[in-house]
Structure formats: C-alpha cells, structure tokens
Amino acid sequence: MFTGIIEEIGEVKKIEKNAHSMKLAIAANKVLEDAALGDSISVNGVCLTVTKYTSNEFEVDIMPETFYHTSLNDLQTQSKVNLERALAANGRLGGHFVSGHADCTGEIIQKRAVENAIYITIKIESNWMKYMMEKGSVAIDGTSLTVFSVGENDITISLIPHTQKETVINQKRLGQRVNIECDLLAKYMERLLTATEKEKGKKPITLDLLGEAGFL
C-alpha cells in the first residue's frame, strides 16, 4: 500500500526488453536507504518488487500484464520515474490509499500555466470516468492528486510548485501516457453495491433497499 506522496525521482539506467516482459535497473537513493530483497517500490504508480539492489540502484521485473497495461513499456534509458516505498505502519497518510495497481493509462492532451499552478488535462478511457469526481482523489504516475475538473472523457489536475518540482508529471509532453489508478475505496464500494444476488446470497444493495431499511 502506498500514499501517492512521491519520495524521489529516479532514472532508468538499463532496460532488458523481451517480447512480453522487461527488466528495469533504476538509479535511486532515498528509497534504497532501508531496502531489502522482495520490497515493494512504486515506479510511476506501479507496484514492483525489488529483485536486486545496491546503495544507489535497484532492479525490478515487469510481467506481461504490466507490460501491456501500463505506460512502463514507454520508458527509455534516462527516463525519469516517480518512486515511493510502501507505506510503513507508523507513517503518515499524506495522500490517499494507493495500491500500486494501475487501472488504465491516460493521455496528456493539454497543459497550461495559471499563476503558480500548472493545469494538466488527461484523456481517460470512458469506462473509468465513473470513478472521477471534482475534488476527488486520483493517482497519476503514482502521485496522489485532486481532480480539479471533470470532462466527458477527461480530467484536469492542478500541480502546485512543489509537485511540479518533485514529480515527473510536469516533465511529460502532450501525447505522452501516464498511469491512472482510480480511488480504491470508490472501486470497493461499487463492487459491494453491485454484487449480484448469487454472489452475496441476498438482495443487492440498492437505493430502494436502503430506503426500505430506513437509511434514506
């Protein structure tokens, strides 16, 4: 589990790409201070397992599912990536609950400066738009952000100066892909509310059922 508060920006040093998978070597410092084999590190919002490491570099394997359904396949040597270690039990939840399991990718279609903020509009696959709401949370390349506005098939986020400097999002160009993870709690809630009668062994939770029970 992660929080979406990026700890540092790493750099891809080596890529071994196969037909349906790949291996990355990433230069980093802070996220390796207490590293151990098998640790989880979020790389651009994707939870990956440390398979090898030194004091300033670590390696991860990317399986076919991740290869095809995230933007990690777009990385090149010297690409910059957002890095975050898994949340410690005594840590502060400064962002929101982020699993590191990207739901889809989005495409940057607009960037504009407004005073000290950068507004970035991202096109998202239509079937994921139902989880987007103004002032709601979304993880973009692993960064916990607030949705500034919602369009028909896109969202706009606003980057403060700190986020512009400490994450890779502002470095990306129009047309580039980013990893999108929708709010975890919203997805669980939808699943509970729409589970079938067969799955739950009872009536699904609907507004009518809530009304009958006196909750509405």
What does this structure look like?
It is a single chain. The mean pLDDT is 92. The strands form two sheets. Strands 1-2-5-4-3-6 form a six-stranded antiparallel beta barrel. A six-stranded antiparallel beta barrel has the order 7-8-11-10-9-12. The chain has two domains: 8-85, Elongation Factor Tu (Ef-tu), domain 3 (Beta Barrel); 104-199, Elongation Factor Tu (Ef-tu), domain 3, CATH 2.40.30. The chain is α+β, with helices and mostly antiparallel strands and 216 residues long. The chain has five helices and twelve strands. The longest helix is centred in the last third of the chain and has 11 residues, at 184-194.
Quickly list its features:
six-stranded antiparallel barrel, single chain, EC 2.5.1.9, riboflavin biosynthesis, 5 helices, six-stranded antiparallel β-barrel, Elongation Factor Tu (Ef-tu), domain 3, alpha+beta, Riboflavin synthase
Please give the alpha-carbon distance between the first and last residues: 34 Å
What portion of residues is helical? 10-25%
What is the 3D shape? globular
Q: How does CATH name the architecture of the largest domain?
A: Beta Barrel
CA-based gyration radius = 19 Å
Major β-sheet annotation: 6 strands, antiparallel, barrel
Topology, number of strands: 12
What's the quick description here?
With 216 residues, this protein is of the alpha+beta class.
Topology summary:
Layout (H helix, E strand, L loop, with lengths): L7 E10 L4 E6 L12 E4 L2 E8 L3 E6 L1 H6 L10 E6 L18 E11 L2 E8 L12 E4 L2 E8 L3 E6 L1 H6 L10 E5 L2 H11 L2 H4 L6 H6 L4
Antiparallel strand pairs: 1-2, 1-6, 2-5, 3-4, 3-6, 4-5, 7-8, 7-12, 8-11, 9-10, 9-12, 10-11
